[in-house]
Every structure is written in structure tokens, then in C-alpha cells.
Design goal:
262 residues; alpha/beta; 2 domains; two-stranded parallel ribbon; 9 helices; 11% strand; binds zinc ion
Amino acid sequence: MVIGRVEGRQIGRHRGQALVISAVALVLAVSAASGSLAAAAVQPANPQPGDPLPACAYRQVTTRYTAYGDWKMTLLDSRERVSSDYVPPDLVSVGQADIAGSGRVRAVMIDDLRAMAAAARRAGDGIAVRSAYRSYADQAAVFRSWVRQHGYAAALLESARPGHSEHQLGLAIDFRSASSSRAPWDYPDWARTGPGRWMKNNAWQYGFIMSYPKGKTASTCYEYEPWHYRYVGRAEAAAVHASGEVLRRYLWDHFETAPEGS
Ligand SMILES: [Zn+2]
């Protein structure tokens, strides 16, 4: 029962009793008005301090950190989203980082992206950008395309719905090998190529984390994507790497459900 579950989640939580009552009343009102229990599921409760990482679910929860300055902490997954008008104010061409390929990313990552591309090049495993910032509208088109090709259920695992994509943050890059314009997803496993392996082993040192590693779909909610990296800055990336956790769990535990002011 959706109503019972939502009610149970609200009662006894940290937020005020008035909010609890109004939230339950809203759920009941929406359900009564629509005559459908499914309507209650579109407005789930926001995460509370100490909540364990939820199982993968497709919801529309506004993520906690939506300010552009809070970019390191912004968690997006199949539940958590930003709004359609979230457009980072400092998007610049990836060319500013002296890396091949095209697209835009937030200026906050340019220095580290330049250093990483140079290091990969020195190692003989040059990388390039296949895809970077995507607007809400771009992501909607990408998702529709996946649905057309593979059906809705498969698309959910392969592509984020609009508002849920790290690409909308301007902090995610799909990398490819510099030596070939072949898409990284057209390899059996891009992480087994020179550049893909170099990235897997070294990207964290430059502030980039592979968001959806192999064998972790139950935690990440997406299929393995060895080409997709999210920039969180060097200090945070080192902490994520040391934790051994996937980025979704790390952000959830350290920021999304951290107590206020911690
Ligand atoms: Zn991607």
C-alpha cells in the first residue's frame, strides 16, 4: 500500500509534526482526487538524516544541493533530480582544457581536465571527449532515442531521464580514445583498452570518478559505463576512491543525508 508506506516514512521523522500531517493530508487528498493510489507515489518524501541508501527506484525527488556553488555535493540518480531550468552558469568549451572532442563543461573542472588529458597523453593512452554537458531538453531527446531503440525498461538502465543526468550538471564527461572516433560503448569493454584502463586507474587523482562501475548496478541503478566520469574535485575524488564506495552511495552518505551544518 503506497499510502501506508509513505505515512510510515513520515511519522517519527525529524521534521516538524505540522509537515508530517500536511504531507499525509496531501497524499490522501491527491489519492482521493485521482482515485488512484499510484498518484501518491509521484511525491515521495525527501531524504532525511541517516536514511540508508534506497533501492533503485524511479521517482522525482528534488536533490538536496541544487545551488551551482554546491556542485561537489549534488547527487543525481534514478530518484533524485534537478529542475529543467538547471543550467550551470560557467559552461566553457572542453577545448580550453586542450583535449580533443567537443562539448561544454563547467569551468571549475578545466584545470584538472587539462592535467588529466596531458597525463594520459604522456602515458600513450590519449583520451578525448565524446559527450559533455547536456541540457534538460538534450537529455529528454537522448532518453527518447534509447526508448525507441530498446524499449522503456532497458532505456531506464542505459540512460538517465531528463533532470536525473549528471550531464546536466556540466560535471560529467563520456570519454573516448583519442586515437579513434569510435564510440566507447561500441567496444566490448572500453576499460580494457589502453585509454579506458588508464582512466579507470588514474582519473580519481584528477578529481574524476567512474559513476557506474562494473558489477555495481544494484547500487548505481545504471548499467556499467566505463566511459562516464563525474567530476567532484580532487579532494572529494580521493575520498571516494579511498572509501571503495560507488559515487552514489558516497554522496548519499556524506552529503544528501548528512545532518544540517555537518
Ligand atoms: Zn555519460
